Amino acid sequence: MIYDRKVVVVMPAYKAENTLTETYNEIPMDIVDEVIIVDDASPDRTIEVAKELGIKHIIRHEKNKGYGGNQKTCYKKALELGADIIIMLHPDYQYTPKLIPSMAYIIANDLYPVVLGSRILGSGARKGGMPLYKLVANRFLTFIENILIRQRISEYHTGYRAFSREVLETINYEVNSDDFVFDNQMLSQIVYAGFDIAEVTCPTKYFTEASSINFRRSCIYGMGVLRVSFCHLLQRMGIAKFESYRERKRIINI
User: Fold this and answer.
1) Would 81 be classed as within a structural domain?
2) What is the CATH number of the domain that holds 229?
3) How many CB atoms are located within 10 Å of the residue 83 CB?
4) In sequence order, which residues have a C-beta less than 8 Å from that of residue 111 and are 6 or more positions away?
5) Considering the domain boundaries, does residue 207 fall inside one?
6) What is the pLDDT of residues 193-229, one digit of tens each?
7) How many domains is the chain built from?
8) pTM of the predicted model as reported, rounded to 2 decimal places
9) Of 60, 101, 111, 134, which residue has the fewest beta carbons closer than 10 angstroms?
10) Which DSSP state fits 97?
11) Where are the alpha helices (DSSP H) in 150-245?
12) Domain that holds residue 120
């Protein structure tokens, strides 16, 4: 715990057999209270490796629900366990778990309710092997998003994120896509709900076992990102109303 706040790390996993051990061994268990791994019907030994590591909370989807669907299960379980600070860490070792204390303390000290590990701040992206086309697409999409969403975030596309419990109890993430655009929808909801976002510089690693989507799916993701940004603009201007921007607490009270 940090200042009596329960810290829970969630790991949405798919085919993480070869990287899970290295990732898990770097998690700072002196401040992390619980670790949850949700395996999205991996065809490898991800579940077996998780059991060998002694991870207490292991959930397996019998059918693949997608990256967004996996996160929904992660956050639901974390809230059930009473988490006050929830950190999403990919088990593919692309992001270092060594940043968990920095991200958790920012939230625990009530500085920001959301913290992103940015690959773009500094020069970590190219040094870590990010393909040039991905970097260019990342910068282009982020530029458009910042204009439409009215933010100054360095990267909307990182998979390394930390949230306060209040954030996850407020935004209506359950209605989001089960695909990769889920991450982008969450940030749009967070901004619309009025939560401030902090960023920390995060080194990254691109290698064979690290998760990455192909060019075709990257294009689909890019189009989805642009759609989310325009929906955010229409919602903010009052031109249209979308269910995804209705807060969960309001839905529960109806």
Assistant:
1) yes
2) 3.90.550.10
3) 24
4) 198
5) yes
6) 999 999 999 988 776 555 567 778 888 999 999 999 9
7) 1
8) 0.91
9) 111
10) G
11) 165-170, 182-192, 215-237
12) 7-253
